[in-house]
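Worked example 3. Consider a protein that binds zinc ion.
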Amino acid sequence: MPEALCPSCGSCGFPMRAPADFAGGRIDAAYCSSCGDEAGQLRPYDEVLQVNADYLVRQQGLDPGAARELAGALLAGMPAWKHRA
Ligand SMILES: [Zn+2]
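Given these inputs, the predicted complex is written out as structure tokens:
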């Protein structure tokens, strides 16, 4: 698919280019494979938060507490979580 039309995850903003990047390998899924389940449905907030925090720990060497805080701030601005009570 053309780069300009590359969709990004509605939960974490991850760009989804290959089918494996999409939840359940479904290219019509609104979420990435980290944020969605096999059926393309959004996972619970705590799971998504943890996955994103783990990613920050691995990629940026943050400590787990700081990573959870940053992940929470990132998710708060995403369409999937904006209206979370
Ligand atoms: Zn995602």
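Take a moment to read the result before moving on. DSSP finds two helices and no strands in the chain. The first helix runs from residue 45 to 60.
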